[in-house]
Amino acid sequence: MISNTPTLGAAPSARLADCPYKGLQSYDEGDEEYYFGRDGDRDLVIANLMASRLTILYGPSGVGKSSLLRAGVAGLMRSMPRTAFSYLAVGNAVVVYFASWRQRPLEALGEALRAAIPGGPSRPGYTPPDGPMSVELLRDVTENLDADVYFILDQFEEEALYADPESAEEFASELGRILGAQNLRANLLIAVREDALAKLDRLEGHVPALFENKLRLEHLDEHAARAAIEQPLVRFNDGRPEDERITIEPALVDELLVQLRTGRLSVSDAGQGSRDMEAVTIETPFLQLVMTRLWAEEQARGSHVLRLSTLRELGNAERIVRTHLDTVLAALTDTQRSVAASIFRYLVTPSGMKIAHTAEDLAEYAGMTDERDIVPVLEELSSGRERILRPVEPSMDRPSSPRYEIFHDVLGPAVLDWRRRFVADVARAESERELQSRKHDEEVRHRETRRRLRRTRLVAAALVVLLVGTVVVGVLAKRNGDEAQRNADAARSSALLSQSRELLASRPAVALARAREAYELTGEPAAAAAVRVAYDADKERLVVRAGTGSAYVARFSPDGKSFVTGSSDGRVKLFDTATGRLIRQFPTAKGGIYRAQFSPDGSMLEISTGVPDATVYDVETGRSLLVIDDHQYLVTAAWGVMDGDQVLFTGGYGHEARSWSPKTGRLLLSYKAGGSDPASVAVSGDSTKVALASTDTLSVLDSRSGKLLKKTQFDGDLDSLAFVGSKSDRLAVWIRPPDEFWGLAFWDWNTETSIAERSDVSRTPSAIALSPNRQYLASVFDKEVHIFNAGTGELEQRLRAPDLLYAVDFSPDGSYVVTGGYGGQVAVWRWGSSEPAPVATMLGHGGTIEDVSFSPARPDLLVSAADDGTVRLWQATRDSTVAKVTYWMQGADLSPDGRTIAAVSDQGVLNVWHRSSGQGDEPEWLSSDTTQVVYWRVRWLPDATGVLVSNNWAWAPQLRELSADDMSEPFDENDRVTFGLAVSTSGKLVAMGDGNNRVVLWNVASRHIERRLSGAGQKDTMIDVVFRPRSDLVLGASTDGTVRMWNASKSGDPVRVFGSPGTIPLSNMAVSADGKWLATVSVDYEVRVYRIDDGQLVQTLHGPSSVIGDVTFSPDASRVAVAAGDGRVYVWDRDTGEARGSMQRHSGAVNSVEFTPDGTQLITASDDGTAAVYDCTPCMEMANLIPKVAARLDARAKGVAAPFDESSSRPIART
Asked: Region 696-722: what's the mean pLDDT?
């Protein structure tokens, strides 16, 4: 428990006299003079504590409750004289701060109350009675001192953790007595973590109005956080000589308020409904940690200024936290660090996401027999001043088992990095110990040999023995040396694989290098799989530095052959897309570059800076053609074409809008009718009209004559705008009414006199991205991108990201958008589906993404700029979509001749796509009933003349013959609903399972049911069926855990049963093309491979931790692939059972998977609404893959563009 001695007039702590920040430590009463940002919270808590008998203060872990109560509430209430604090009516008061719950609480509170009484009581000679806290003790104190008693019970969640049942019940009972006592001058405040708030329910039996007065403490808002950064410096400098004062750069404060936002850590619901605006808040403890580190660094350098450049040099907030982590973990014992490394693996996913687990679960995962082995480590890391973990609310099914999670998301990558290094160090140390042991054994054997040689008197024999011994020792030494090298290589390979897996979620390019190195050491299958996965995930082709500062701009030229970069230090560079060669560096500007745009023909480049000015350069020569420097604020500009000439339209504060001929440097026209100070300029698609947005006026003018065509007034602010629609008769514009948020609105300027109502709101306006045909537009709304129909103004889709977004761009065909923002991820989205999610994520940037764009010439190339100072060129996987629907695509099947793909959606829409032409037939609706959740299957007839379809609500299959105009004659209906779908090799029979655990066989020619083959137990379901190729055998997979195989030509018992009845239910199965192998999938995600001829189980493959929608064999049966609910396809080697890797081409669950006849490609259908065909990277042989990997890595080592995968740019037509 902290000291309860009043602190009036006490000097600040010695530590804060040296550094005005606290790191992760809580503030105490001695730190009151340096505690800022919580004045309003402090006064609110004091007012409630004094006005209410009981107040509950709660908030998330790490929000700063203890600091507020110690340095804010308790310190002020004890130290402020009555007159100075009279507005809160503080009189004689005894303030008891209590946070020590490991002992019996009533006895401890009694001692705390007596210790809190000021040294000069109001009645001379008064000594409070001994004993535990009680109503009687409180009455004695309050009456004798004529004082009010205020209890601040902090960290109350620990009371339930440490108190035994008897003392806990005594405390609850006495608490009820105190709060129920009449005229007792005692008020209580209970401070508890938000995740433990529900645990107070046990007090309600004694305290009926327990939750009547609750206060929630939020994280610091931006204003408060700014005070917490700046005001401690003001206090520190107070009274110090000028040469000892410390200042801080305003830019550093602004950057910290971005990097430490709590909003970055929140998890948003995936719905598309409206949402309330959330205030931006700051992660309090890490603000203090970063400030403490910056302070120490500047002091070490002898600097008197806290600088943004120092933050950059220290690696920004994330790197500072990582350094903190190393320091904390270094304080643990070797055994504790080993335990920490074991449990960290399960508290952070490879992608850096936090997971909460109980101590019992962590012990089980880590292979420890007793959870008590890890509890001390968990408590050590989740308590005290420098926390790495924090306890969180137990799960509902285990309310008495607290869970633990990483304290802060920003610690996730640091934890993974520390664990990787720790595991590598342990492996290296173990290898070294083993080598030393072997060396010692050899030396012992050698000495023994020499002793035996000295004992012999026969020189010849001695020579022989010596010779033999020498040979033996040499052979053993060679053998042991080889084994030691193999062990060292294995340890090194294991460490590299660990690094590769952890880097895969943040830096796939580096993960690929680690995996290749691991494979070269051992050649093991696990290393080969890591190479394949990393090669597929690595989309990075080039990294260049825009300058010495942050990279703000990255834009392709119109022909895509080059791209331009702009940096905060004023540097502008032009690079060759194909090679990465620096073509030209333009003259360094005076201010940071915030825009660079090519002219429509690519011959000129306009650059705008924050000075403010705008300059146009000749791209070929680098010569300056035009400089515009007569504005007072940022220059806004847009290109157009008039009479075949490139024209630049400009605006900005301090001047009216103008049009220029940059090649001649001539001013063409001033648009005086549009007013002065236009904040934004837009040009219509045909360049005949120009739109201007000023403070309160939106105008449209004729670009040639300057004639005003239409104007509307708006009470508020206007910002980015754009002409939309094919006729440019509509404007999209960001607007902000007084005292409200920004929103995107539309103005049909040709017909309407006023701007339409806003869309959803955002804190800041954003640039407007137009699809190439101008039919759609996209703009950033905080953590979302909203896509609108330009013709109607209707919102088409929201794309929701986990972090704040800053940039968006359309692909050349308009079907994809790319986004970037806080968090450093570049995401590619296929918009238009019912559940949009990124189809690809580009990882590698170490800071906020400031700009992203697609290449106009190659839809698979993108470029991004980030505040880590780099610009990166990416190659996305080619658009492999062959069919697209609005909702879920549930099945796809390749015709036996390999020429045509049929795919069916959950809405019953059939798509047929021809591979040779890349064209699809008109989609056909098979069913109009969308009231049920339907799961469709599709299978080709062996002669490819038609397809069979069915679903889980059907009683019979349907046949769609391609030569017919409609569905063919219906099949007889079964007496139960059906599942699965299969066609015999001959094409004469079609099979389905049903709800009575039967396989139902239809004759395709007659459409009649031929027979039903029954499995044991009609309460189960025959969930899937398949024919064994070139035979009369049919197999049915049941929810009773078995596969039964019958002779389809006759009724009777199964000829073989695979698996055991009553085991885990099955969901899917497949038979290899040669008929030798059977693969089954159970609902526990296990894949089992059987040899059909003898029923022997030969492999058990552990599938992904998500629903498996389908399983298939490669044509030669050497590979097994499954379609998974996490959007990936996983591939194994059938003979060895080794995982070959996985790949992702969908943003939703994959429902079906099939190999093409040559085994090099996969055909899949997904919940993202697409069916796709793409190369099977996990199927590649290492002999073919390693040269490609080497070429990519070699190019990076040389600083040039890595070779493009030309298969990625093959055009694929879509229906």
From this structure: 92
Kindly give the pairing relationship between strand 148-153 and strand 186-193.
Answer: parallel
Strands of the sheet with 1096-1102, listed across from one edge: 1066-1071, 1077-1082, 1086-1091, 1096-1102
Q: What's the CA gap between 389 and 405, in Å, rounded?
A: 6
If one looks up domain 882-1194 in CATH, what number appears? 2.130.10.10
Evaluate whether 449 touches 469 at the Cβ level (below 8 Å): yes
38-219 under CATH 3.40.50.300, yes or no: yes
**Residues 287/256, Cβ–Cβ less than 8 Å:** yes
Two structure tokens written together for 311: 């933050």
Per-residue pLDDT band for 590 (boundaries 50, 70, 90) equals confident
Contact 26, 385 (CB under 8 A): yes
Element (H, E) at 1155: strand 1150-1155
Q: Pull the structure tokens for residue 434.
A: 């083993």
pLDDT given for residue 466 in this prediction: 61
What value does the mean pLDDT of the chain take?
A: 83
Instruction: In whole angstroms, give the CA distance from residue 374 to residue 1070.
Output: 44
What pLDDT, in 10s, does the model give residues 33-57?
888 989 889 999 999 999 899 999 9
- The structure tokens listed for 310 are 């120092």
Rg (alpha carbons) of the chain, rounded to whole number: 36
Q: pLDDT digit string (tens) for 802-850?
A: 888 999 999 998 989 999 998 889 999 988 877 788 888 889 998 889 9
First-last CA distance in the chain: 71
Residue type at 512 in one-letter notation? L
Tokens coding 1213: 């037509």
Residue with tokens 């980030």: 866
> How many Å apart are CA 724 and CA 1063, to the nearest integer?
61
pLDDT over 60 (residue 1071): yes
Angle between helices 250-259 and 284-301 (to 10 degrees): 140
Sign (positive or negative) of CA dihedral 492, 493, 496, 502: negative
Name the CATH code of domain 630-762 (choices 2.60.120.10, 3.40.630.30, 3.40.718.10, 2.130.10.10): 2.130.10.10
Strands 989-994 and 978-983: antiparallel
Of 723, 720, 695, 725, which Cα lies nearest the Cα of 709? 723
Measured CA to CA, the distance from residue 63 to residue 56 in angstroms comes to 15
905's torsion region: left (phi>0), alpha (psi -120 to 50) or beta?
Answer: beta
CA distance 1102 to 1108: 11
The number of C-alpha atoms within 13 Å of 81 and in the hemisphere containing its C-beta is 3
Q: What is the distance between the alpha carbons of residues 598 and 417, in angstroms, rounded to a whole number?
A: 42
Q: What is the DSSP letter of 261?
A: B
Confidence at residue 780, expressed as pLDDT on a 0 to 100 scale:
93
- The CA–CA distances, whole Å, from 91 to 88, 127, 179, 322 equal 9, 21, 21, 48
Whole-prediction pTM: 0.59
Q: Which amino acid is at 231?
A: Q
Fold of 244-265+281-417: Arc Repressor Mutant, subunit A (1.10.10)
10 Å CB burial of residue 154 (0-12, 13-18, 19+) is buried
pLDDT at position 933 is 53
* pLDDT reported for residue 68: 92
Span 214-221, average pLDDT:
88
Q: Return the CATH architecture of domain 764-878.
A: 7 Propeller (2.130)
CA dihedral 760, 765, 769, 775 (to 10 degrees): 40
Determine which helix (DSSP H) or strand (DSSP E) holds 51, and give its type and residue range: helix 39-51
Q: Which two tokens stand for residue 83?
A: 């007159």
The pLDDT, as a whole number, for residue 1020 is: 87
Q: Helix or strand or coil: residue 942?
A: coil
- CATH number belonging to domain 550-617: 2.40.10.480
- Structure-model confidence comparison of residues 1206 and 64, the more confident one: 64
The arithmetic mean of pLDDT across residues 95-112, rounded, is 87
Two tokens, residue 341: 């490394």
452 vs 473: CA distance, rounded Å: 15
